[in-house]
Design brief:
Blueprint lengths: L1 E10 L2 E12 L4 E5 L4 H4 L1 H11 L8 E7 L11 H11 L5 H6 L1 E2 L2 E2 L5 E2 L4 H10 L4 E5 L3 H4 L6 E5 L2 H7 L36 H13 L3 E4 L6 H6 L1 H4 L5 H14 L14 E2 L7 H5 E2 L5 E2 L1 H4 L4 E4 L7 H5 L2 H6 L1 E6 L2 E6 L3 E6 L18 H8 L4 H4 L4 E4 L14 H18 L13 H7 L2 H12 L5 H17 L7 H9 L8
C-alpha cells in the first residue's frame, strides 16, 4: 500500500511543493529514504520512528520506502519530518489517507512525538497556496507566521498524536513533556526608536541623510571619531517610509528563513537595520552555507539599511562582494547542491575615518599619519565601490556654538514622505518607487538638456564616470522632489554633484 501527502522545500526564499510517498512491502523490516535527501534529512528516519512509537502507535514491521518527489530537486533540513510520518501512517492504515493526501505538512519531529517549529514557514506556505494547496499543517509555534499568508487554511498541531487523532486514529496518545518549543527570538534587525533631534549640529550631514531617505540613495560619511556618523546612520530608518507590501513580504520571508522573525508582530513593515561588525566574513555579509546558502546581512537588510561602520576595516574581499547586489538588488549564491536567490535591495551607509588615526580633515588637523598612510587606508574603499555611492559627505567635529538640537525625525520623515509620493505619482504606471531605482535610459530621455549638460560636462572633464553622471542625475531628481518642483534644473544637478564630492580631502 502507498500513502501520500505533501510538503515544501526551500531554495533561497522560493518554495517548492513536493510529493511525499511511502510504500510498505512484505519483507524484512527496513526504512529507506530516497529523492536526494541531505544528511539531516536522512536522520528523519530515526526521528519519525521514535516519534510514532512515543505516540502509542505501532510502527509497521515492513520494508518502508519513502520517496520525495521530484527526485531531481535537492532536499535538506528537517521540515519534511511531519510529512514523512503522515505518509508512513497513511500507508500502514493508521489514519484516513484522503485528508492527509490533500494537505501540506511542515514540521520537525522530536523523539517524544512533539512537533517542533522550523524556519521558512512563511515562504513555504506562500508556495503551497500558489500551488493550489491551501490546507497547511504547521507546528503550533509557527501558527502566527503561517497565518500571515492570505488564502491559507492553517491547522496548528503540537504533537504527532494530535495530528493522528485529527486523521481518525483514536489510539494515539502524546507522551508527557515540557512546554512546546518556541522559535528563536528575533535579532535586533531594526534600529532603536532613536530620534534625529538627538543629533547636535551637523547641518550638512543631516541634509545628506534626508536626501538619502527621500531617494533611496547610498551614503558615505567620512569624519573623525565622535563626530556623529554612527548616530546619524542609526536614525536613517526612523525617517524612511514603511516598506511597500511586496518588499514587506519579501523581507518577512527572508527573516523567516534566517530564523530572526517575530511572527507575533505580523509582517515587517518598518525598514530593517543591519549593522554587522567589521570582522564579519563574506558569508556572513552576503550569505553562505556548505550546501544551500542561508541569507546574509545584505538580504536581511532588504527594504532597509545596511550600515558598515569603520568601513575601511572590513576585508577588501567583503567590500567587493557588495558591488553586484548594489546594481541588481539581489544576490545569487551558487553551491554544489544548487543556487539560492535572495532579494537584496538595500540602502548602503558607510562610515569611515579619513585616516588610521582619524584626525585628518584636510584643514590642518592634528593628524600624525603620513600622506601615504592616509591614501593606503582610504584606498581600501575601491573606486568601483565608491562610484556606486550617490552621496559622499564629510562629518566634521561639532563646535560648541553649533551644538543646538535639530529637527526631530517626525518632521524630516514628513518631508521624505512627500518627496516619495511625488516620485510615485510621476511613475504611477512604472515599477519604480524611488529615484535611486530609475534606469539610465529614462534619465536621458526625461531630464532637461540644460540640466543634464552639467553632469555630461563633468564626465567629459573626467570628474564623473558614466555611472557617476547617471547617479548625479538621480540625486538631482530627488532634490527636485524635495523642492516640490516638476523636474530638476541645472542648479539641482550642480547640488547633486556637490553631494558626491566631499569637502575635505584625504
Amino acid at each position: 500500500m502507498i500513502g501520500r501527502t505533501r510538503s515544501v522545500v526551500l531554495t533561497g526564499v522560493r518554495g517548492h511543493v513536493i510529493d511525499v510517498e511511502a510504500h510498505l512491502a512484505a519483507s524484512l523490516p527496513a526504512f529507506t529514504l530516497v529523492g536526494l535527501p541531505d544528511a539531516s534529512l536522512h536522520e528523519a528516519r530515526d526521528r519519525v520512528r521514535a516519534a510514532v512509537a512515543s505516540s502509542s502507535l505501532a510502527w509497521p514491521q515492513r520494508r518502508i520506502t519513502v520517496n520525495l518527489s521530484p527526485a531531481s530537486l535537492p532536499k535538506s533540513g528537517s521540515v519534511t519530518d511531519l510529512a514523512i510520518a503522515v505518509a508512513v501512517m497513511a500507508a500502514a492504515g493508521m489514519i484516513t489517507p484522503g485528508s492527509a493526501a490533500r494537505a501540506v505538512h511542515l514540521g520537525e519531529l522530536g523523539l517524544d512525538g512533539q512537533v517542533r517549529p522550523v524556519r521558512g514557514v512563511l515562504p513555504s506556505v506562500i508556495a503551497a497556496v500558489e500551488a493550489g494547496c491551501p490546507h497547511v499543517v504547521v507546528p503550533q509555534a509557527n501558527a502566527d507566521e503561517a497565518s500571515l499568508v492570505p488564502g491559507a487554511s492553517v491547522t496548528a498541531v503540537d504533537s504527532l498524536a494530535h495530528l493522528a487523532a485529527m486523521y481518525g486514529n483514536d489510539d494515539a496518545r502524546p507522551t508527557a513533556r515540557g512546554p512546546a518549543a518556541r522559535p528563536p527570538a528575533a535579532n535586533a534587525s531594526e534600529a532603536s526608536a532613536a530620534d534625529l533631534s538627538d543629533v547636535r549640529g551637523q547641518t550638512e550631514a543631516r541634509w545628506a541623510l534626508e536626501v538619502a531617505a527621500a531617494g533611496g540613495h547610498h551614503l558615505l560619511m567620512v569624519g573623525p571619531p565622535g563626530a556623529g556618523k554612527t548616530m546619524l546612520a542609526s536614525r536613517l530608518p526612523g525617517i524612511l517610509p514603511d516598506m511597500a507590501p511586496a518588499d514587506a513580504l519579501a523581507a518577512t520571508s527572508i527573516h523567516s528563513v534566517a530564523g530572526t522573525l517575530d511572527a507575533s508582530q505580523g509582517l515587517l513593515k518598518r525598514p530593517p537595520f543591519e549593522a554587522p561588525h567589521h570582522s564579519a566574513s563574506a558569508a556572513a555579509i552576503v550569505g553562505g552555507g556548505a550546501r544551500l546558502a542561508r541569507p546574509g546581512a545584505i538580504s536581511r537588510a532588504h527594504g532597509g539599511v545596511l550600515f558598515l561602520d569603520e568601513a575601511p576595516e572590513f576585508p577588501t574581499g567583503v567590500l567587493q562582494t557588495l558591488r553586484q547586489p548594489l546594481e541588481s538588488g539581489e544576490v545569487v549564491l551558487h553551491r554544489a547542491y544548487g543556487a539560492a536567490r535572495y532579494p537584496a535591495r538595500f540602502q548602503l551607509v558607510l562610515a569611515a575615518n579619513p585616516c588610521p588615526c582619524g584626525h585628518y580633515f584636510g584643514r590642518g588637523g592634528s593628524c600624525s599619519c603620513t600622506p601615504m598612510a592616509r591614501r593606503r587606508y582610504f584606498a581600501r574603499l575601491s573606486g568601483p565601490l565608491l562610484d556606486r555611492i550617490d552621496l559622499q559627505v564629510d562629518v566634521l567635529p561639532v563646535r560648541k556654538a553649533q551644538a543646538a538640537p535639530g529637527e526631530d525625525s517626525a518632521s524630516v520623515a514628513q518631508r521624505v514622505m512627500q518627496a516619495r509620493l511625488r516620485a510615485r505619482r510621476r511613475w504611477a504606471e512604472l515599477p519604480w518607487t524611488a529615484c535611486a531605482q530609475v534606469p539610465s535610459r529614462w534619465l536621458r530621455e526625461n531630464t532637461q538638456r540644460s540640466a543634464a549638460a552639467v553632469a555630461h560636462a563633468a564626465m567629459e572633464r573626467g570628474r564623473l564616470s558614466a555611472r557617476g553622471a547617471d547617479r548625479a542625475l538621480r540625486v538631482a531628481w530627488t532634490l527636485a522632489d524635495l523642492d516640490a518642483v516638476a523636474e530638476p534644473t541645472s542648479d539641482h544637478v550642480a547640488r547633486a554633484m556637490m553631494l558626491r564630492s566631499r569637502d575635505g580631502g584625504q
